[in-house]
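If you are new to this repository, start here. Below is one unmodified record pulled from the training split, so you can see the exact layout before writing a loader.
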Amino acid sequence: MPIKSSPSSTEAAGPLDLIRKYSISGPRYTSYPPATKFAAEIGSLGLEEAITSDNAPGAGPISLYFHLPFCETRCWFCGCHTVITLRRDAACEYLDDLEREMRLTAARMDRNRPVTQIHLGGGTPTFFPPADLRRLGGLIRELFPQRSPDCEFSVEIDPRRLTEEHVVALREIGANRASLGVQDTNPRVQLAIHRIQPQAVNQQAFAWLRANGFASINVDLIYGLPLQTVESFGRTIDDVLTLRPDRLSVFSYAHVPWIKPTQKIFDDREQLPDAEAKLGMFAAAHRQLTAAGFIDIGLDHFARPDDSLALAQRAGTLHRNFQGYSTQAGASLYSFGISSISSTPETYRQNLKTLPEWRAALAEGRLPVERGLRLTAEDQRRRAIIMRLMCDRRLDFARLSRELGVDFASTYAKELAGLTDLLTDGIVVRTEGGIAVTEVGIPLLRVVAMRFDPLFTEAPRQHAAAI
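And here is the target side for that same chain:
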């Protein structure tokens, strides 16, 4: 069904007005269906059989993720699966179990598949002493030896817990990209979130990483934290720009105290900015970063024009997975450690989330899977559609018809007809042979993607108060 373009109302409604109008809670679409739809009853899903199928002759590349959950202290805003301890022996003990899981999984795989991406996430990977990082690197090389020459090996880093010895060890095992948690540089905000991190610590981390040959450095920031204002967050952006990062991730703080009880502290102190201030922070950050030459990759990611993410976006080869945007498309994801999520073309599986349960499964010689999902053919088609929107900001009907094996425009006529309000507001436009998200619509990418998600299109749309 053709979509008729309508006059844009963006002259009457500015970008912030549109964000207010379409502000709705929804997935970040690092997967489709999202992890909230994974099932605990996994016996009938054939998740282990899916590993065998995924490793049939001629199988493609793989991506590896290792969840290293330990932190010395708890940041009160954090929503990650972490273990808080000062006991360094915990790292070595965890690595013993991680090796068991790696060997159990590798025994089910074709070990000649090329590894195109490796990611160490947390927690705080640099909680692990350099010797343990070298041990992990040795296990990766032993069990997954076919590393691609252009393999992206990234590690999440807390600058407060970093030494130059860590950086040297990470380079020795092949790490070439780093993502630094900064969040905010204002001392008052840092005190309010229980994360004291002077700018000098960030500068030292950058100096060590650059001196040791890291090809790309990302900085993570969060807006919507206690005591933040539009002006103070603007100064944080200015501080971070002096570090000359290659990429930035500017995340919206997710306030979920019913899931993460530590966040109740923010309710008790009544220091969280309101929705209007939060919208202003993102708008100001967007202006500052684009004025500084960064490309808006989508959602909350920005990159320099010569960065591989920006190049992949221009080439139409950008991909999205559980670590966010990536240049490595077409790889099956094998993940290790508590709470980590793996994916094959037809399945997702997530590990047990607590150390005792995860360890007990491994002690019994079982893969430590807690829940998962087997995708239907329609799930896989919807995943491809949403992926293209999130990465390309457009849908090419002819290309999708070829790739999905259906006539896209007729099969998804209902969804296309449901874009009328987005067309009217100038968030999407009709193009020759498809639709495209406009510049003003980029902050609302998720909203456009949700129109192709039956979990939302089949239920009444309700606008939430915060993005």
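Two things worth knowing about this chain: The mean pLDDT is 91. Residues 89-106 form the longest helix (18 residues).
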